[in-house]
Structures are given as C-alpha cells and as structure tokens.
Design brief:
The complex is a heterodimer. Chain A is α+β, with helices and mostly antiparallel strands. Chain A folds into 2 domains: 36 residues; 97 residues, Rieske Iron-sulfur Protein. In chain A, strands 1-9-8-3-2 form a 5-stranded antiparallel β-sheet, with no helix packed on it. Chain A has a 4-stranded antiparallel β-sheet with strand order 4-5-6-7, with no helix packed on it. The termini of chain A are far apart. By secondary structure, chain B is mainly α. Chain B contains 22 helices and 2 strands. Chain B has a two-stranded antiparallel ribbon with strand order 1-2. Classes of the chains: A alpha+beta, B mainly alpha. Chains A and B meet through strand 7 of A and helix 9, helix 10, helix 11 and helix 20 of B.
C-alpha cells in the first residue's frame, strides 16, 4: 500500500497491512472455519442415530364387572381404560407436566410428583400441568380391545365394543 | 610432578553413577534442593507444576480465618474425595439399567469397604454442594468479585453449574426409583420450553424443548441410552470440565493478586509479629520484569517490608488443615449414615412423594407451579444475574470486607426480613388459597407461566433491589439485597420441599400427618 506523499503520519496510525499478512490471516481463518465445520460434523454423532421404536400397541380384555367411569389399568402400562354407556376409551396416565405416572382415583387422576389433578376425561383440574391428559387410540378386536400408546386421538373419541 | 591420574575404568564409572542415581533422581525432580530457607522454599514452589498455582508469598490478611473460611479449599478437598472414591466405585459399576442396580447392591452389600466408599462418595458430593454455595456467598459478601476478579467470579458460576450437574447425573446412576423418576423429571424439564411454544402454538416448527430432551435421553423414552449418556457425563465430560475450570480458577487467584483484602489491610493488621525479613534475603536466582509480577494499582516498590509471609509453610499448613477437616467430616458422615438405595426402577409407578435430593427440592417446589419457570426460567435468570454482578457493581468501597459497601450489614439484615417474609408469604398464600388454575379452570397456560408464585417472588426481589439501588445510590446495595433475598428464597423453598410436602406434593405440617395406605 502506498502512502500519499505529504500525508502526515502519526506513529499511532495503524500500519497499512502488507499483502503477506492478509494472506496469512486469510489462511488462518480458513483453517479455523474448517475446524469449526469439522466440530459441527462431529457434534452430529451424539444426536442419537439409532432409536428403538417398538410398537406400543397392546391388547386388553376388560373385566365384565368394570363399572362405568372406573379406570382399568393394565399391568405395567401407563394407560387407564374406561367403559361407559357411549363406549370404551383410553387415557394416557403420563402427566403432561413432567412425565410422572398419574394415579386414577374417584375424582379423576392425581400426580404424585408435583400435585397436578385431572378430571376423569383428562382435563386439568389443578396444579402445574399445562395440557390435558392425552386420549389414546383404541380399536375393538374379537372380544377385546387394542390400545396404542403411540397414537393419540381427540378427547371424547369412544369405541363401541 | 606426580604421575597423571589414570582414568577410572568404565565399569568403575558405571558403579559410581549407579550409586549416585537415587540422589540424582531426587535432585532432578526437585531442582532447588531441600526447601530449608525462604529462598529455596520460593524456588521449590515456582519450580513445581502443582505448587506454582500458589504465589510464593501470601499476605497475612489472606491467612486470617475470617477472610475465606477455607471454603474454596474445602470444596476442592470434597471434590478430590469424590474423585478417588468415584474411581474406586467404577471398578464394580455397570452402566446398564438392571445391571446398574445390581452392581450398586453388590457394592453396598458384598464388596469389602464398598458401602463405606460409596457413603464417602455420596457425602463428599453433598459437602461439595454445601461448600460451593457457601464459598460463593463468602465471595459475594466480601465483595471479592470486583475488579480485577470479575472473570474468576464467572468461572465460579461455571463451577457451580458443573457441580450441580455432577450431583444430578450422579444420583441417576443407581437406577433405583429415585434415579428413574429423576431422569424422567429432568428430561421433561429439558423439554419444558414446550410449555411456552405450545401456548404460542409454534411447537410444530420450533421445538427446542423436544430437541433438548432427545439429546439428553438419546431416545424417545428413558432407557439404556439415557443411562449411558448420564454415565458418560458423570465420569468423563463433567469431571474434565470441572478440572479444567478449577485450574483456571486457582491460577487466576494468583494472577489477580491473591484474595481480595481491604485497601487498609496493612494498617489494620499492624506490624507482623517477630522480626521482619525482606522478601529476598539473597539476590533472586530468577528475575522478572516488575510489570510481570506486580499486579495492582500502584507499584509495590519502595514500600518497605510487605505484610506477607512465605506460602510455604504458612499457607500450606492452613490448606492441609482444611483438607484434613473436610476429609474427617465426610468420613464421619459416611460412618453415621448410609447412602440411600431405593427399590429397582419401576417405570409404571412413581414413588409418592417423588422427591429429588435436598439441593433440588427448592427447584422442585418452583416446578410445581410451572415447569418452564421453575426448571429453566428462574435458574437461568439467577445464573445470569449472578454472572452480571461484577460487571454492574463497579464500586470500590468495602472490597474485601464482610458485608462491605453502602448499606452494608443494615441492608443485609433488612433483606433477610424481605427475603424470608416474601417467600413465606407467597408460599403460605399458594398453599392456603391455591393458584389461578384452581380459581379459573379455563385460564390460558401462558398466564400461569407468567404469573405464578415463582415469577412473583422473583419480581418482588427484583423490585426491592432496584429500590435499594435508588435509596443508597449504589449498585452494591442492590446486589447485597438481591443476593440475600435469593438465598432466603432458596432456603425457604428447599425447607418446604424437604419437610412439608407429602404424597401428591400436598402440604403437611409433619410426615406424621401423611395419609396411610
């Protein structure tokens, strides 16, 4: 870079950058950005690539004596199944607050972790839960029902036996 | 003229070298020789990679018990205990769901000293959480975060976060009921930004909560992938991060001129007892330019004998004392009380009540009002607020003094009243009368997220501290008030979560009143 003759030069003025420094900086920055991209690529690895997705569908036979409005909880499932005059429906018992399993009681459901309460149809009655409990897909089969924990349906969807 | 000495045969030389080898190994390891004089002790410190984190001489103010109370060293000691016992536990631990539980049972009931080692690990981790919080409080109340120590305060924030992360990932590993439901709740807290994105209706294309949960669990649900991720965090990623941050933290203490002390510390201390020696009795073997070793506003040249003593042995004895005391406390606690192990994780039945360890129960109380506010919003706000303190408080009065600064002890006493009063009042209100959702069922979630006991408490504390800033025309006064308030809030919420919450997170005066079933 040439300095115009007659321009006063202070020793505080920045020195004009020689071409070699510019090239040096450019190579430094390309190396740095290449490393950054490599790092971003490496960060893809922890984002789980292999996800087990077993079918969450299961068959269930409701006891004949199940009274209307009383929950039937199949063993080791986070689902409550109800039967009333309009049909059969299944409500997920996973709390919409922080994922604890709620317990059916006479007034609906209660959560042991942070005190959320839900009405029998899953609507929030109290506490920190932001959303109603989810209704799950139920299909009538020969003599029983097929409930799919992985598929939700709009609240109020019932199935006739 | 005598005959020229015959050179010793090569064999003789080898023998001599062999005989001299132990002495030479020692001499090359400790080049400055035995630390017998002040000068050789100084050389000993700065030629040793571990000791050179200390400065060679230390101010007498630093050694006063009330300056630091040894809390930082106690935290380090507790960490070293967890490190050693943790490595021992890894000989038996298997990070796979049911095997993990069985291996902890083996450690507890079969492995010789296994139960003792696990108890020490657990207690040292608890002690570490306590001392790291107290250490932060000490640094805050003595205004030691100020220039030039601002960045070290930030490093300290990082250390606090990593310490809590280590505690969290640690109690998940046994895969008992506590562990399983803690992972579940923790992962759903990571997902709780959905509370806001759902309410605004953008979760479909912008879902940071779901991404965080998936990254944490490595799967859609809590299982082996999640356990191995937490294990990796607990034994590798977080300890490495902690050690890296710790080295910077220690090194910076020295580089920032040792512990903060009042400007008139020398006058207050008076003359040192006994004869005063100049810093160097002999010409130093190494010379530095003054700019490199003298940190401070004014050159320390020509000020006469400094009020310092050699770090070796004075500081080292003090540190050793704190190390021993911390170890003693952890060992005693480990002998008195066993680390808990609940039943094997059962994914379909949570414990009732499902309680986190004590240091997270304050958060659990907040989370019981709103998942996002309690689990992410307020913790982030507190961390950001704490981190900003040294950059907002640029004052100079009171540095290095307990409750130093405008307002001082008076503000702290008042803030204790406000802090305890406000948190107790809002908790009492929420427990007695419930909250918005119980009065108006149809209220939108966003209203509950914005207006809940947690946010209202934070707002009250914030307004109070703004008032303090105006009243005393000092940011330090506001910071004193805010820090004290949040400490009180933490204590109140933690106490309520620990002692007064029963099944279904209902308030009970005593566990004796819990319903039986």
């Amino acid at each position: 870079m040439t300095v115009m003759p007659g321009t006063p030069q202070s020793r505080l003025d920045p020195e004009p950058m020689p071409r070699r420094d510019l090239l040096g900086l450019a190579s430094l920055w390309s190396a740095a950005s290449a490393l950054l991209f490599a790092l971003l690529g490496a960060m893809r690895l922890p984002n789980a690539a292999i996800v087990a997705a077993p079918s969450k569908s299961f068959g269930v036979t409701l006891p004949e004596s199940l009274p209307a409005g009383e929950a039937f909880v199949p063993p080791n499932r986070a689902v409550a199944i109800f039967r009333d005059s309009e049909g059969v429906y299944a409500v997920s018992t996973i709390c919409t607050h922080l994922g604890c399993v709620v317990k059916p009681n006479a007034e609906g459901f209660e959560c042991p972790c942070h005190g959320s309460r839900f009405k029998p149809d899953g609507a929030v009655a109290k506490g920190p839960a932001p959303l109603p409990l989810q209704w799950l897909k139920v299909k009538a089969t020969n003599g029983g029902f097929q409930v799919d924990e992985g598929k939700t349906v709009p609240a109020g969807t019932r199935v006739k036996a | 003229m005598s005959a020229p000495a015959t050179p010793p045969p090569a064999l003789q030389e080898l023998k001599d070298n062999l005989r001299a080898a132990p002495r030479r190994i020692f001499e090359t390891a400790f080049r400055s020789g035995k630390p017998t004089t002040d000068r050789t002790r100084s050389t000993f410190i700065f030629s040793n990679v571990f000791l050179h984190l200390h400065s060679v001489r230390v101010h007498r103010w630093t050694l006063r018990w009330s300056t630091s109370m040894g809390l930082g060293i106690a935290t380090t000691a507790a960490f070293l205990l967890t490190l050693i016992t943790g490595i021992l536990l890894m000989f038996y631990y298997k990070p796979y769901p049911e095997a993990a539980y069985q291996s902890i049972k083996d450690i507890h009931f079969v492995v010789p000293t296994g139960r003792f080692i696990r108890n020490i690990h657990r207690w040292a981790a608890n002690v570490m959480v306590v001392t790291v919080i107290l250490h932060m409080a000490r640094t805050f109340y003595t205004a030691s975060y100020r220039r030039p120590r601002e960045f070290n305060w930030l490093i300290g924030m990082g250390l606090l976060a990593v310490t809590l992360g280590l505690s969290f990932t640690g109690y998940l590993l046994p895969w008992d009921q506590l562990a399983y439901w803690a992972i579940t709740i923790g992962a759903n807290i990571a997902q709780s930004p959905r509370e806001v994105t759902d309410a605004v209706g953008i979760t479909g294309w912008f879902d940071p909560g779901g991404m965080q949960k998936f990254l944490l669990l490595g799967s859609d649900s809590v299982g082996p992938e999640a356990l191995i991720r937490f294990y990796l965090l607990h034994v590798m990623i977080l300890p490495l991060a902690l050690m890296a941050l710790m080295s910077v933290h220690f090194w910076r203490i020295r580089k920032d001129g040792g512990l903060a002390r009042p400007a008139d510390a020398d006058q207050r201390l008076g003359n040192p007892p006994g004869p005063v020696y100049p810093v160097f009795t002999e010409a130093p073997m190494k010379t530095y330019s003054l700019a490199a070793i003298v940190r401070g506003r004014t050159p320390a040249v020509g000020k006469g004998p400094e009020n310092t003593v050699p770090s070796m042995p004075h500081l080292f004895y003090a540190e050793l004392g704190v190390f021993m005391l911390t170890t003693l406390v952890c060992l005693a606690l480990a002998l008195i009380s066993d680390a808990p192990l609940k039943e094997l994780a059962n994914p379909s039945v949570p414990e009732n009540p499902a309680k986190a360890p004590w240091y997270f129960l304050g958060l659990q109380e907040l989370v019981s009002f709103s998942a996002f506010v309690g689990g992410i919003g307020i913790p982030l706000l507190v961390l950001a607020g704490l981190g900003l303190i040294p950059y907002l408080d640029r004052e100079e009065t009171g540095t290095g003094e307990w409750f130093g600064g405008p307002g001082g002890r008076y503000v702290v006493r008042q803030a204790l009243l406000v802090g305890f009063g406000a948190s107790l009042a809002i908790e009492a209100f929420a427990i007695r009368f419930g909250w918005i959702r119980e009065w108006y069922l149809a209220v939108p979630q966003l209203v509950v997220t914005i207006l809940n006991p947690g946010t209202i408490l934070a707002a009250v504390y914030g307004l109070y501290s703004v008032w303090l800033v105006k009243r005393y025309r000092s940011t330090r006064a506001g910071a004193l008030g805010l820090f004290t308030c949040f400490l009180c809030g933490f204590l109140v919420l933690t106490a309520i979560g620990t002692y007064f919450r029963g099944p279904n997170w209902v308030f009970y005066w005593s566990p004796g009143d819990w319903p039986r079933h």
